[in-house]
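User:
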Amino acid sequence: MKSFLICLSLLLLSTAAFAQMGGLNPPVDPRTNMEGYPTSRTPMESSSLKRLSGDETKLWQARASGKADFIKKLMSEDVTIVSCTGARNKKQWISAIETGDCRLRTFTLKDFVVKVTSPTAASISYRAEQDAVCKGKSLPQTVNVVSTYLYQQGTWRNIYYEETATAPTQSEGVAR
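Assistant: Predicted structure:
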C-alpha cells in the first residue's frame, strides 16, 4: 500500500509538471504567430484600447512627420524607449526624430491588445509594419511593440516603450 501511494504521488507530480510546461501544446511563438494571444475583454480594457491605440497611432504619425510635439506631451519625463537602436530617454528619442537621424517613411499598426492592471496603469501591445531608417541603416520591417502607461496629472502618460523585431519571413528574403 505504501509503494502504491508513492507511485501515485509521483504520477500526480509528473502530470502536473507536464501540464505546467504546456503539455502536448507547446507555447505559441509571439515573433511569428499572434494566434491564441489574449484580447481586450473587460469594459475598462475596451475603452482604454480605443484611447491608447489612438495615442499610439498619433505617436507613429508624429514620428513619420518629424514633428515631436505630440510625443513630448504623451511621454513622461522619465520614459524609457527601447528599440533595435538601443535604449534612449525622452530627450534622445525626440532629438533623433527632429534631426532626421531616424526617419519613419511608412507604417501600419495592427493587432492591438490592452491590459489594464489598475485604474491608473495599462499596457498596450501591437504589431507594426514599417519602412524606417536610423543613421542610414534600415530598421526591421516588422516589430512587436509594448507601451506601458500611467495615469498622471489627469491624463495617460507613456512611461515605457519597447519594440522587438520579429523573426524574418520568406517574403523578407530569409528561408526558413
